[in-house]
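RETRY 2/3 - previous attempt timed out on the joint model. Re-submitting the same 606-residue input unchanged.
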Amino acid sequence: MIRFRLLPASLSRGICGTFPPMSLRPDQVRRIATLARIELKADEEQGVAERLNRVLGLIDQIQKQDTAGIEPMAHPLDGHVPVAQRLRPDQVTEQDSRAEFQKIAPAVEGGLYLVPKVIE
Amino acid sequence: MLNQTVSELSAALSAQKISSVELTKLFIARAKSLNPRLNAFITLDEDRALADARVADERRGKGEGGPLTGVPIAHKDIYCTRGMLTTCGSRMLANFVSPYDAHVIERFGAAGAVLLGKTNMDEFAMGSSNETSHFGPVKNPWDAARVPGGSSGGSAAAVAARMSPAATGTDTGGSIRQPAALTGVSGLKPTYGVVSRFGMIAFASSLDQGGPLGKSAEDLALLMNVMAGFDPRDSTSLERPKEDYTRSLKMDLKGLRIGLPREFFADGLDADVRARVLEAVKWYEGQGAKTVEVALPAAALAVPVYYVIAPAEASSNLSRFDGVRYGHRAKEYADLADMYRKTRAEGFGAEVKRRILVGTYVLSHGYYDAYYLQAQKVRRLIARDFAAAFEQCDLIAGPTAPSTAFALGEKTEDPVQMYLNDIFTIPAPLAGLPGLSIPCGFDAQGLPVGLQIMGNYFSEARMLGAAHRYQQATDWHLRVPKETPL
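RETRY 2/3 succeeded.
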């Protein structure tokens, strides 16, 4: 069904062994959704897990690559331009736009953003 | 007028053959009449556009302004636009009226361009077909039963259907180049850091880059002259001397070394796409360019690497959408955590949620090294392959997408089939490199084929020059889609 015709044949066979896990169980998917603060309804779990597992099947291909001694690349121009974060002078550059920003907020009162009670 | 390039329209405005108000009315009328069929625009603001046009006419009347003064431009709805709806194609931001302008919007404003409207897109730029938009799919002007590509599908369709002379887009894994290819227009993804991302809603921050879509490579150069440049408000914006992106349009192709990556012509590439791309390469050889076979072996893993890194960064970036300061908030909830969960469940569509979940998983304890770190290591191998290739050649050419436009609904059931559509556009942004797509003919069904040209860091002017020379000898880029005749 899923064919990687543009990938080398050796990468199309899938991963053997115990790691990484071949598929996520619904309870694992629930836990990930909790971490991501996204509600999953019970009747959605199966479908979401199925599609997530297809994606994991794809990304598991990277385990095959030998990367011994290779430094991770976090910035795409690493090695071509200095990629250190630029610092700016510690000066106030923004003006107060609170009223404008709060106009588009779901709930405000007295200049504050309202959320459900956190501390009893 | 509708089929003229930005440079031609600019000349007509200079010569007072037409006013910006007249030109703007022409494009608004066209956009309004076609939008119900194509759904390319989320917002068309006639009053704002005409106000911009009047200011532009005044500036031109006083002998002020530049090439883009008075030229209508459409912007992808990912760029924050002050006082205007900025939805990013999502229910989460369906009510978001931005309190500020993105850097790109400011630059076009300062150049005197007319803001025609905001274009439809895949939700949060996550998609390759424009079918994930909360506002419904965009239709391909060449065949309304097919997708325009994505995520900048609205911008590409608007340019293809001559609803706007040019447009802006953003590209993370191909979101400018792939829709440009599928709709028969030109599009450029610049080197990472060349266009400021201030006010451009973030998807994957180590990849995202804004760029132009237009009919011709020359138009892309004119738009780049406005869009590119240092902006201290974006910490990844590069401090470089100002460039004139039109400077190499007359370049000599004699002796130009064009690399052909063998991985880009492997099994799985549509036969018509291969034929059109190789015909274009042959044209370059006829002009004295030399072709050389190059290898990008690690690029075979570009798609899986991308689908670790991009979702990981997206899961972090999209954590800001919590229903507190702006955007959607669920109506009913038990407590704060429940408000977050319900707000995000309602506000995000299926593909966005899927990527957030994948990203959360690959960054979670116990999996970080195996996925995220490993992906970043393979990313370096991909960048090294490009560096080795550019020792042997000046530009790399190949197909932009493995096929022409596919049918609406054809790939929505299986995310992986959709992801594989970006196999040729994903490698360049992983290495931070620029890439462009220009039309190079049609397949047997009359659908446009895109030629991709990639270059080394900061070689946009040369890439645009090579593309422009081809467009002087061909007219693929001036063909009008049959479903939207002038």
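Residues 1-65 of chain A form one domain. Closing ticket.
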